[in-house]
Amino acid sequence: MGITERRNREKLRMRRSILDAAMKLFVEDGYDNVSIRKIAKRIEYSPATIYLYFTDKDEIFFQLHQEAFSKFLAVQKETLKIQNPMARLAKQGANYLEFAQKHPEHYDLMFIIKAPLRKLKTEWNCGFESFDILRQTIAECIDQGHLGNNNVDVVAIHVWANVHGLASLIIRDRLAMIPEDLLPQLLQEVMAFGTETLANR
After folding, report:
1. Distance between CA 196 and CA 19 in Å, rounded?
2. What confidence score (pLDDT) does residue 117 get?
3. DSSP for 53-85, written as a single string
4. What CA–CA distance (Å, rounded) separates 161 from 172?
5. Domain boundary among 54, 70, 95
6. d(Cα 92, Cα 45) in Å, to the nearest integer?
7. Which of 118, 6, 121, 128 is nearest to 55 (CA)?
């Protein structure tokens, strides 16, 4: 391995260490309570080292946010192979819940932790694309007469809000009153109930 390659690997390793430490801190302490100094302390380097890789903590948070959405987007793109739009919509909802359960820290970062996210309006490509996949599916459902004559965006946000609510309850252990072995089937029925309600509206 040459000197240049070794240096590049070291830079990537350091960048990853910063992001991983920041992820833990953002989830544990919240965005407002995390500083560059705190991140530096976690990885046992000086704050000046962090600034060699990121301009501020907002850039770090946004990078983590993008990584999380990239993972989620890859999963949702797989559903586009499903021809029946209602079956595709059901799979997208199931994927959403599964992603939240498998990656609770990423989910917190994406949807729960309060942060300024100034770049979201202009650079949130993965987020926009994942929402467009949902909109596309719902538009097909409406065109085929499955969800009534409803506005696509109204239905998309309604579906998203409902599944997000379920995901938030799950990862915060707020459904402890439901026996664990019954929960998966119950969640499917809850999502199906929401879709049927829209279809009959």
Report:
1. 42
2. 67
3. T-SSHHHHHHHHHHHHHHHHHHHHHGGGG--SH
4. 16
5. 54
6. 41
7. 118
CB 39 within 8 A of CB 45: no
pLDDT for 149 equals 86
Question: Domain of 28: which CATH number?
Answer: 1.10.10.60
pLDDT of residue 76: 95
pLDDT digits (tens, 9 = 90+) for 63-111: 998 899 999 999 999 999 999 999 999 999 999 999 999 999 999 988 8
Sorted by sequence, the CB contacts under 8 Å of residue 83 that are 6+ apart come out as none
Are 113 and 145 within one domain?
Answer: yes
The domain tally of the chain equals: 2
Q: Is 60 left (phi over 0), alpha (psi -120 to 50) or beta?
A: alpha
Q: What is the mean pLDDT of each run of 10 residues along the chain (201 residues)?
A: 79 95 94 95 94 93 90 94 94 94 92 76 77 96 90 93 93 87 85 76 68
What global pTM score does this model have? 0.86
Could you give the CA distance from residue 10 to residue 31 in angstroms, rounded to a whole number? 27
Q: Same domain for 66 and 126?
A: yes
Compute CA 177 distance to the chain's CA centroid, rounded to the nearest angstrom: 26
